[in-house]
Amino acid sequence: MSSNPNAQGFSTASIHAGYEPDEFYGSINIPIYASTTFAQNGPNDLRNGFEYTRVGNPTIVSLEKTVAALEGAQFGRAFSSGMAATDILFRILLKPGDHIILGNDAYGGTFRLIDTVFTAWGVEYTVVDTAVAAEVAAAIKENTKLIWVETPTNPALSITDIAAIAELTKGTNAKLVVDNTFASPYLQQPLALGAHAVLHSTTKYIGGHSDVVGGIVVTNDAALDEELLFLQGGVGPIPSVFDAYLTARGLKTLAVRMERHCDNAEKVADLLDSRPEVSTVLYPGLASHPGHEVAAKQMKRFGAMISVRFAGGEEAAKKFCTSTKLICLAESLGGVESLLEHPATMTHQSAAGSQLEVPRDLVRISIGIEDIEDLLADVEQALDQL
Fold first, then answer.
1. Which CATH class is domain 255-384?
2. Architecture of domain 5-251
3. d(CA 113, CA 86)
4. What residues does each domain of the chain span?
5. How many other CB atoms are there within 10 angstroms of residue 9's CB atom?
6. Is pTM, for the whole model, over 0.85?
7. Catalytic residue numbers, as ranges
8. Where are the N6-(pyridoxal phosphate)lysine modifications (predicted)?
């Protein structure tokens, strides 16, 4: 086994990076260290660096190392949720009087946090289409400290050229952070494209089974990591050790799951694109998608998220949501099962009336790893009811 996890293949690293079987029992999997505190050899003489789980636990650290290896990062810090990770990053990178640039299509929870909590703290924000680098460039100011990019975006599946935006930060005070949740580390590594940090809601593809909530931030910036470590312990938004174990367990199969997710999504997108009930299919794998070429350049494949706009408007969108039998109407995404939702009234209702408002004729579908024949049949019968 290579001593450098970043030199391993992706699947190998997802299974082996971050943990070696110990010399005592040789457990193949990282144990769940369900202990709040750790015995010390003497006052402040720690055994392998662990003293109290809020400031470090072997199960959590193992997960952090694995995700960091998969993203080509030196450092990783795990949190209790994707939003907890987002909040900590904001606290580090933004202070009263600072400015953030946000995409005009983004997760509703991220926008809500900026628009309520951080504006009350004196932080300014500008919303632009980050897929247009010129718009980002025009929005950068002296006090711009953070450019927040999702690609693909949630829920319109817009694609931003990460390398192009990273280039814009040179000579400025701004850091580029990429929310890589929709792509997962298997499909995209933003640090290699110039991002300063990468965030994941590990609840989604990394955990992959809709049974555990979590978040993680990875970076090659030692100073940023030091601040992440301080607030991780100082504020305490850590994952439970059981959650960290479940997330690490799911992560081992990320590569094989993502291949099946993408296989299925490509076929479902083609079906949706052929139907008259659908006015627009938003999927970067389609040649008609405006971000197709950029996605092909910076992603391994095109992902498993599809958004659809219906010719019959909001009524048709909601009817479709309640007509599928196999694909379940529920929030979240990235699990082995297929889910769909109506963002305007569910995950993104906090963006109503803002520059991030989601069209009411749009449905977001998270394509799972079921048999493709069953998924296609379910989509067809639901469309037939419109």
1. alpha beta
2. 3-Layer(aba) Sandwich (3.40)
3. 9
4. 5-251, 255-384
5. 10
6. yes
7. 54, 107, 179, 204
8. 204
